[in-house]
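Task: sequence design from structure.
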């Protein structure tokens, strides 16, 4: 009878070094297509900045490409921007973002987006830095409350495990990898 508790204790002791060494780790992956489907459901947004100096309207959901550049998500968006009460002009934006996991929501979000390139014939050169800053703020607001992937309680066994044991996230070309490990 006393042999069972002893064997259980030995098994637990033997598994601790194995889990800390990464032997028991697993990965869950979700694809760029999974993320794009969720972003497409998020719709559009309009924001005003600087007491109406700049009004930005996201006219269609952004396009997401994972791993371009390495370890980041590339974000391409088509916006309409109105500067100082002028009529809105179309603007093409290229930026990057990271990804974060929110344990309370059991969801992944794009975070810290940065607009790197703002291209438009209708925005004067001197207004581009202000437009880029406002667009970055709008992208942050857009992605802050809209998850790009949610781990489902009724999902695969790996998703169910990930809900409690997520250790790391990395962006690879075409997918996000979430590393899981016991305890």
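Answer:
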């Amino acid at each position: 009878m006393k042999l069972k508790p002893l064997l259980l204790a030995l098994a637990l002791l033997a598994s601790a070094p194995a889990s800390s060494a990464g032997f028991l780790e697993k990965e869950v992956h979700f694809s760029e297509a999974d993320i794009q489907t969720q972003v497409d459901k998020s719709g559009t947004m309009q924001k005003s900045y600087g007491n109406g100096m700049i009004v930005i309207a996201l006219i269609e959901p952004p396009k997401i490409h994972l791993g371009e550049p390495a370890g980041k998500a590339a974000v391409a968006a088509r916006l309409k921007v109105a500067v100082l009460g002028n009529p809105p002009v179309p603007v093409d934006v290229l930026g990057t973002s990271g990804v974060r996991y929110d344990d309370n929501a059991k969801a992944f979000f794009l975070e810290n987006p940065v607009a790197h390139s703002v291209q438009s014939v209708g925005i004067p050169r001197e207004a581009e830095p202000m437009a880029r800053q406002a667009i970055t703020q709008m992208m942050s607001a857009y992605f802050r409350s809209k998850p790009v992937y949610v781990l489902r309680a009724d999902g695969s066994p790996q998703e169910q495990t990930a809900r409690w044991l997520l250790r790391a996230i990395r962006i690879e070309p075409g997918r996000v990898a979430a590393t899981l490990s016991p305890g």
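The longest strand covers residues 89-102.
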